[in-house]
Specification:
mainly alpha, Lysozyme, two-stranded antiparallel sheet, 4 strands, about 5% strand
Length: about 160
């Protein structure tokens, strides 16, 4: 059962498969770097933001703590933004997307709107729209969006749900 937008009786949490999925795509790097010339400085498991700049070095513990905090924050944002019935696979795919594009991008997305309208086929097609940086499709983003779409489309039995 679902409530009004952003009010769900049960908050979902990312599955172990979601965590592994994000880590596989992000790859942990303990020295700040720019994934592409047009990107932001990044460190750890894809962390960006104030204070992350050239020359910054973290320990594995710092990277792991930041990942846990960021993942919890993005999961909370996805929970806040969804009102329709949501499978674990759908939730995990949307958390991965939000982790990569940001909470603002997720909340403004047609994907989220279509999911909340129970237009699963329409929402599924929207993953492919998020494969660009500065208007140019990137192979890594295309691969990630295809994998997220597969996760989103998985039936509960395929994701271990009852």
């Amino acid at each position: 059962m679902t409530g009004s937008l952003g009010v769900r009786p049960e908050a979902m949490t990312p599955s172990a498969a979601c965590i592994a999925f994000i880590k596989d795509f992000e790859k942990c790097r303990l020295t700040a770097f720019k994934p592409t010339p047009n990107d932001n400085w990044t460190i750890g498991w894809g962390a960006t933001g104030p204070g992350i700049k050239e020359g910054l070095v973290w320990t594995q513990e710092q990277a792991d703590r930041r990942f846990e905090a960021d993942l919890a924050g993005f999961a909370a944002q996805v929970n806040k933004g969804i009102a329709a019935h949501t499978t674990q696979g759908q939730f995990d795919a949307m958390v991965s997307l939000a982790y990569n594009i940001g909470a603002g991008g997720f909340h403004a997305s047609t994907l989220r709107r279509l999911h909340n309208a129970a237009d699963i086929a329409g929402a599924l097609k929207e993953f492919a729209r998020w494969d660009k940086q500065a208007g140019v499709a990137l192979a890594g983003l295309t691969r990630r969006r295809r994998a997220e779409a597969t996760m989103y489309a998985a039936r509960p039995a395929e994701t271990g749900e009852a």
